[in-house]
Amino acid sequence: MIVVPGPSSQKLGYKIAELLKQKIIPIEFKRFPDGESYIRFEGEVGSKDVALVQTTGPPQDEHLVQLLLMADTAKTLKAKTITAVVPYFAYARQDQRFRLGEAFSVKTIVTLLQTCGVGKILTVNSHNPAVLGTLQVPVEDLSAIPLLAEHFQKRGFDGACSLALGKKGLATAVEADGVLGGGSDYISTQRDRVTGKVMIEEKPLPVKGRDVVIFDDIISSGGTMMKAVAWTRKQNARTVHVACVHPLLVGDAEDKILQCGAESIVGTDSVSSHISVVSVAPLIAEALITRGAKK
Ligand code: R5P
Fold first, then answer.
1. Ligand 1 pocket, Cβ-based, cut-off 6 angstroms
2. pLDDT tens for residues 255-265?
């Protein structure tokens, strides 16, 4: 297998290749003065299995175009198979037409990847794996929740209560509880489909006097997590910590969450940030080595 670390995942891509002990093809990349992307493979691909490592955090559109250019180039260079390793899969939240006339964005992105030769997508805690699974390219969705929970366990939070956002998030809380063992529950949410704003429903939580870790897949503007932390605090939790897989941290999201009473915020390196203290590299390397280009 050949690993190609893309412009948005240089550090992570090299880490994965190191764990796999596989050859790397570096990418030369630049942005033209008008904003367009330039990509060049600095080596021969031959008829090898190729793993393109390119997360699609902000700026999402630029990172997606780079990924499409990489995939189509790998195809032209006669790669045997092309796996797109996209730890944070942009547009996955627009996973249906919520309102008449809306784009089904995630489907469009997957179609483009397929056209450019991608035969498999490997991602981490995608927003709706069930929908990704119905699209044209096989998708393997890995979970970094146990790794985040282990991080808190190592910091002495064994026995902490695991919470997640929304009823659908309960599975995430249960997964974290498999490591922390202090019980799990969900914070009830309602989303306004027009404004996109999330409201917290005042559902009581079993957190009085307890250490709590709130898990979520994404922190973008931080609006959802701010409200979740504030409500958990109001329920008299002893301490509240936050764990997210994809720390997009738009603007002052982190400060806003801390101001609502979170003691710490931790993320993974699916998207590089200063809170990315948990690495998804071993998770991805293991998936590539055991299942390779197969689903
Ligand atoms: C929503 O469905 C996700 O799981 C996150 O809760 C959400 O995307 C976070 O967005 P923001 O930080 O902008 O509230």
1. 93, 165, 198, 216-225
2. 999 999 999 99
